[in-house]
Amino acid sequence: MPTVFRDGPYRFFFYSNDGNEPPHIHVERDDCVAKYWLTPIRLQRSGGFRPSELNKIGPIIESKHAFLLRCWHEYFGF
Fold it and tell me: Which entry of 39, 54, 67, 69 is 20 to 30 Å from 76 by CA?
């Protein structure tokens, strides 16, 4: 599970076998997890995060969107 970056308590990462899906990023904090599609940016699923936290995570992903897509394509070779 390569970590792409950290922001405060959040870890943003890919699973190494995710290359067969559209670009996305996983986010975790403690026992909470979420998955966001990157094109377009939207929450795919969440477990444990409160809506207020998801409202913080979304803008982080938006601000790093180009970086995340570049990392996705570099890692998975697309």
Answer: 54
- Structural domain boundaries in the chain: 3-76
Task: Determine what percent of the chain falls in helix, strand and coil, rounding each to the nearest 5.
Answer: 35, 35, 25
Whether 77 and 18 have beta carbons less than 8 Å apart is answered as: no
Amino acid present at 8: G
Token representation of residue 70: 């570049």
Q: What is the pTM of this model?
A: 0.94
What is the chain's length?
78
Owner of token pair 């990462």? 13
pLDDT digit string (tens) for 4-62? Answer: 999 999 999 999 999 899 999 999 999 999 999 999 999 999 999 999 999 999 999 99
